[in-house]
Amino acid sequence: MTESGARLDHLVSVLKGRGYRLTPQRKAVLQILAASDGHLSVEQIYARVKKDFPMTSLATVYKTVTLLKEMGEVLELGFSDGGNRYDGRKPYPHPHLICIRCRKIIDPEVTALSHLPQEVASSTGYRIVNHRLDFFGICPECQAAENQAGNNSAGQAARRNSIRRW
Amino acid sequence: MTESGARLDHLVSVLKGRGYRLTPQRKAVLQILAASDGHLSVEQIYARVKKDFPMTSLATVYKTVTLLKEMGEVLELGFSDGGNRYDGRKPYPHPHLICIRCRKIIDPEVTALSHLPQEVASSTGYRIVNHRLDFFGICPECQAAENQAGNNSAGQAARRNSIRRW
DNA sequence: GTAGGTGCAAATCGTTTGCTGATTC
DNA sequence: GAATCAGCAAACGATTTGCACCTAC
Questions:
Q1: Other Cβ atoms within 10 Å of B81 Cβ, number
Q2: C4 C1' – B124 CA distance, angstroms?
Q3: pTM of this prediction?
Q4: Residue B80: its chain A contacts at CB < 8 A?
Q5: How far, in Å, CA of B125 to CA of B117, rounded?
Q6: Does B124 touch chain A if contact means CB atoms closer than 8 Å?
Q7: Structural domains of chain A sorted by starting position, each given as residue range(s) with its CATH number in brackets
Q8: Using a CB-CB distance cutoff of 8 angstroms, which residues of chain B are in contact with residue A106?
Q9: Helix, coil or strand: residue A125
């Protein structure tokens, strides 16, 4: 069985185990989340679901994603500008690396972080339940594009206009 | 001179140095940011500004905070549920510890993190320009409150209802 | 005097919700 | 056959914006 197939089976069993119904729309969302690279927006999920179920509504996608999030089977990467992303394959805290130009997100390997929550808990008395580590930068492709644009004013304007919040 | 006084002078000089006018409303926002604990919401800033300038509008507070953010003099802690906070004293990346019950935010001491951006840059080819590390947990006060509430159903309902997104 | 800033209200946009008819189990 | 779910459209809430008037310089 494929990795995404196993993940899909798990999601289905968790859903049914809690007494939720497996509608075609939900199954489509689960499939997409199980097979994704882990950084989909709701709009992206919606677009892919509609290929199979054109009458699916955006609200249903939101409801399903929220349901999975509450069950701990999807990790929400929330951003204040509304560009939220969802990871249905690794629904536990892990570092992310986000390109501020093209919004691509990857999972970098970062060493020796597992002790940090315990360290913070010990020094502050807080009970740590979650954490998040994001790096923001410019991916190699966007760096190349910027270099190619050179120092002409059009390139500078493009760079100015691509500044985003995070 | 006090620390917040020095910080205020710095903010004023940066603003004027870039040709921006120092209006009473802006000065009030700068004072509050310079004197704050570093984790104010826009609404909190607005409420404090209005004590001195009751006719100040929320839009002006937003504009001033955005201006300072673009100048790199305020750190925005954006959250996807809209509860954004602003730090006018330490406008550079540093870890935060957020209570998911009362929303209190403190700056924990976390060791040996400065090498991480370089490590990620080396292994991925990204040019890292920013990063963010947040810990989410329950502060000692809220832990005590939950223990006092005990295992009665009212306490459990209170805990259920206080779950927030992050 | 004038460019820039303020206040107001309306617009924006991702997300949530109320409701009615349809569907899973 | 019910309780749950989907679709729709309206509501929501933080933030942004257009515009007419005002004011710091």
A1: 10
A2: 44
A3: 0.88
A4: 76, 78-80, 82, 84
A5: 11
A6: yes
A7: 1-91 (1.10.10.10), 93-166 (3.30.1490.190)
A8: 124
A9: coil
